[in-house]
Amino acid sequence: MLPTLSQIESTAPLVYSVVPATPQYCWPLLGERLGAEVWLKHENHTPVGAFKVRGGLVYFADLAKAGKVREVITATRGNHGQSVALGARRYGLDATIVVPFGNGVEKNNAMRALGAKLIEHGEDFQEARQHAIQMAETSGAHMVPSFHPLLIQGVASYGVELFRAVPNLNTLYVPIGLGSGICACTAVRNALSPETKIVGVVSAHARAYALSFASKQPIDSPVSTQLADGMACRTPQPEALELIWKYVDRIVEVSDDEIAAAMRAIFECTHNVAEGAGAAAVAAIAKEREQVKGKKVAAVLSGGNVDREVFAKVLGASDAR
User: Residue 136 and residue 157: Cα distance in Å, rounded?
Assistant: First the structure.
């Protein structure tokens, strides 16, 4: 499942035709607060405000080669859906996207603005995905998965940018939704910086990957996070688990309160907007402050697509310091 460095580099031009390389900055004030040299990989700076678009560009370019697909369908909590909508529009395909009820208003609006037809179904991502699969079987539309080797290959381009720009990282913290991001990072780490530890980050209110990692077997877990919708996974992806078990050093769980504190810290120290999942890696660094003290670490700020009202509420709250 993991792409080689040459495979990643061979498809990078597809990514860069739409997505310029995103920056990685070391923010002194954030490092001072966390007690380490902290680098942020700013995937909130892509044209859809999240890392997913990189994989979608590679996947849709491959899909277009066959020339047989006219309609695609997928399920999402938002960032994958924007990637699919953008890819479909780029190649003149119709896109239908299924989201659960209560999905982020602004993510939904962004997908519609990219030309996708939106359908609300189910109480969580798994129910939305099952409905999308059934719709694809009935209509003959192509079901775009949320986890696939080509998605990993495209996403891995940000890992190459980071590891080449910031050598000798002690640890890289990566949020886990279904797993494309962390699997992409392990592929690049293996090729360019084998001494760097990869730490996965999950919501303490969506524990499927943490429980599965600890037990070395797939375990479903209910989802109750109100802030980290990009990590709201009830059922882990088997292929992702195999790679995580093999290559990831550990998994850290962070609560909604810890994520909210990280969102505030990122804004105060860098004036960047991070959605819940996007701030989770910084929350994990804060939680492991003693372990990373004085070290050179990085966090993937995987996206900045948070609804205005949610972000205003987060920023208006106080930290217990």
Answer: 30
Judge whether 27 and 278 are in contact, CB under 8 Å. no
At which residue do the structure tokens 């609006």 appear?
A: 109
Pairing assessment for the beta strands 142-143 and 117-120 based on DSSP bridges: unpaired
Which run of H or of E encompasses 198? Answer: strand 197-203
CA 79 to CA 53: how far, in whole Å?
A: 8
Q: Look at the chain and count its residues.
A: 321
Q: Which of 264, 265, 197, 198 is nearest to 34 (CA)?
A: 265
Q: Residue 11: what residue type?
A: T
Task: Write out pLDDT tens, residues 87-114.
Answer: 999 999 999 999 999 999 999 999 999 9
Count of beta carbons in the 10 Å neighbourhood of residue 21 = 16
**Angle at the Cα of 97 from the Cα atoms of 93 and 102, rounded to 5 degrees:** 160
Question: How wide is the angle at C-alpha 86 spanned by C-alphas 84 and 90, nearest 5°?
Answer: 115
The parts of the chain modelled with pLDDT lower than 50 are none
